[in-house]
Amino acid sequence: MTQAGSPVATELIERVLAGERRAVARLISLIENGADGVEEALARLYPATGNAYTVGITGASGSGKSTLTDRLVAAFRAGGSEVGVIAIDPSSPFTGGAILGDRVRMQGHATDRGVFIRSMATRGHLGGLALATPQAIRVLDAAGKPWIFVETVGVGQSEVEVVEATDTTVVVVNPGWGDSVQANKAGLLEIGEIFVVNKADRPGTREAMRDLEQMLEFGHRGAGWRPPVLAAVAAEGTGTAELREAILAHRRHLEEGGGLAAERRRRAADEVRRIVMERAAAAARRCCTGAAFEALVDAVAGRSLDPYAAARSIEGV
Amino acid sequence: MTQAGSPVATELIERVLAGERRAVARLISLIENGADGVEEALARLYPATGNAYTVGITGASGSGKSTLTDRLVAAFRAGGSEVGVIAIDPSSPFTGGAILGDRVRMQGHATDRGVFIRSMATRGHLGGLALATPQAIRVLDAAGKPWIFVETVGVGQSEVEVVEATDTTVVVVNPGWGDSVQANKAGLLEIGEIFVVNKADRPGTREAMRDLEQMLEFGHRGAGWRPPVLAAVAAEGTGTAELREAILAHRRHLEEGGGLAAERRRRAADEVRRIVMERAAAAARRCCTGAAFEALVDAVAGRSLDPYAAARSIEGV
Predict the structure, then answer these.
(1) Contact at CB, A49 and B303, closer than 8 angstroms
(2) Cα A202 → chain centroid
(3) A contact test, residue of B1, B278, B306 with most A CBs within 10 A
(4) Which helix or strand (DSSP H or E) is residue B187 part of?
């Protein structure tokens, strides 16, 4: 089973490797749309990847993630690093007032050539966000961005999968968060390597931080890393420097303990597994159409063949 | 790929075909646990199936579905029919107070040999409820029950799939339901062929019925069948006879218009498709283990092989 269709132009790939913004944007659009030839293009970029450090930022809608990401981009830029940002939108990037508003605000970096910001949906990508996001990260990585932030809207299963595919995961909550996201609390605790109580000028901040600290006593899985709990008021820029420091500290922890290579290998295994599953599902769907399939269904409906025997008789499965 | 393992004893299959209760219970347990040899056993039962008429009963937790099912069983028994009931429990049948309570209450039929009641979880079944339920229905069908009721707890995606696999779907709501299950409203409207406002001695019954009638003006997909909206107080037995009549009317509608055969063929296609997908996923999972897989992952982690090429190189996918 090979990926058919028109190849992505060699010229585009070379321009991505040269770090050209428009080429990067174009290739991410092709990924988003599940275009033909993307797999081949990514195969050619792949040897040039693995240099970027990736940070996932997640939390409930309205928690101020985008503002925090915005400030964090500025902090890393001030430190001299180029930065890429992928903002995962569950729907199209051009619907949804709040999301659009966020993107517009992030365009404060629009004139900064060292920042590439891109919101991404998954209009046609087989396997959805969980497979499209690592591909988009690789494009920014190959284009030479040493820091890549992936911001997700919401805290559902697919968002969690997305941020779990990054090196460091930052979970953003607000004072009083425990009441509103009760259901996802345990899940968020498990994935976060750094916790930020944003909007920390509001009542309940101290309680939220203490609450988190207590739960982290028991809940975190990361060996040897105790997730810090930070306070921030992203709208005023408070806490951004501390968050940057915490990210750098977690990176050092992973790099010095050998955890980074181990984590990335684990993620490579997950990704290959996901792709295999997705290809198997696609192949199975293709088998379940056409005249031969309909004839089998007729036999099943007529009770001359049982459904499991029919399934077994479908070639290639 | 064949189903390995110990075959289910021929004697058990013969006892199921003879309608023996303990054999029926035993085979449903084997299905629940995803035991080896079940596929073969069901293949042998399959020619003896297709005679039962199946009714799905669904609605939110606490809507009184179980009481209604209980009354309906009594009404069909009074009409002379033998009845099978499968109550789908999302977890084990022996946890959960309300569920256990329901089952105990249904044991009012315990001394009636013409009624077989069984709650079912899916402890080990590959493909979950959506594949296990048709198998369990087939056991009751082969055992000679002409009417089979499938009751689901809750209104989630998998419960909807379960009741959609029956000939007639009854959706149970309560007065004021619109406020509480807003999110599932459209989904429930689409699957129901008969609607029952249970606990109709409570305020808001008329509004709930009118609300449903209005939405059904626009919402229902079934050709030529306008779903009736009934009122019931199952706890007092009110409305049960009307519900039985509505089920019989829907059955006549399907049988006379040729819709029953068409629907069952469509469901057969769905089931074969599900089994094919499940088998493909299981095969893919097996491919993603072992030394060869780990070597591929090493190559991906070392950037000498991209994840898509690794996935393509895995045999059989």
Answers:
(1) yes
(2) 29
(3) B306
(4) helix B185-191
Residues of chain A in contact with residue B130, where contact means CB-CB under 8 angstroms, are none
Site of tokens 């569950």: A90
Chain B contact probe: residue of A272, A278, A300 with most B CBs at under 10 A = A272
Q: Which amino acid is at A91?
A: S
CB contact (8 A) between residue A303 and residue B47:
yes
Closest to A88 (Cα-Cα) out of A41, A24, A32: A32
Amino acid (1-letter code) at residue B50: G
* pLDDT tens readout for residues A203-261: 999 999 998 898 888 755 666 899 999 999 999 999 999 999 999 999 999 999 899 99
| Closest listed residue to residue A120, CA positions, set A99, A106, A101, A105 | A99
The mean pLDDT value of chain A amounts to 85
Phi, psi for residue A200 in degrees, rounded to 5: -75, 10
For B284, which residue in chain A has the nearest alpha carbon? A277
C-alpha angle with apex A119: A114 to A120, nearest 5 degrees? Answer: 130
| Whole-number Cα distances in Å, B25 to A15, A233, B20, B217 | 66, 61, 9, 42
- Token code pair at residue A156: 């559902």
Strand partners, B231: B197
Beta bridge partner(s), residue A117: A85
Q: Is pLDDT larger for residue B247 or for residue A287?
A: B247
Q: What's the DSSP call for residue B144? A: T
Phi and psi angles of residue A168, each rounded to the nearest 5 degrees, phi first? -125, 130
**Residue whose token pair is 């999302």:** B90
Containing B3, the helix (H) or strand (E) segment is none
- Give the full edge-to-edge strand order of the sheet including A83-88: A115-120, A83-88, A147-152, A53-59, A168-173, A194-198, A229-232
Q: What type of residue is A122?
A: T
CA angle A190, A196, A202 (to 5 degrees): 130
Confidence bin at A114 (pLDDT 50/70/90):
confident
* Residue that wins the pLDDT comparison between B112 and B272: B272
Collapse the DSSP code of A60 into the 3-class scheme (helix H, G, I; strand E, B; otherwise coil) and give the result. Answer: coil
Question: Nearest chain B Cα to A267, which residue?
Answer: B301
ipTM of predicted assembly, 2 dp: 0.86
Q: Coil, helix or strand for B166?
A: coil
Q: CB-based contacts of A304: which residues, under 8 Å, 6+ apart?
A: B47
> Do B275 and A300 make contact, defined as CB atoms within 8 angstroms?
no
Average pLDDT over residues A89-110: 49
Residue with tokens 């997908």: B277
For residue B152, which amino acid is it?
A: T
- Asked whether the beta carbons of residue B265 and residue A311 sit closer than 8 angstroms, the reply is no
Q: Tell me the CA distances in angstroms from B41 to B9, B138, B191, one per residue in order.
A: 8, 11, 31
A165: DSSP letter: T
Contact A59, A172 (CB under 8 A): yes
Sign of CA dihedral A156, A162, A165, A166: negative
- Cβ contacts of residue A136 below 8 Å, gap of 6+? A28, A31, A32, A86, A118, A120
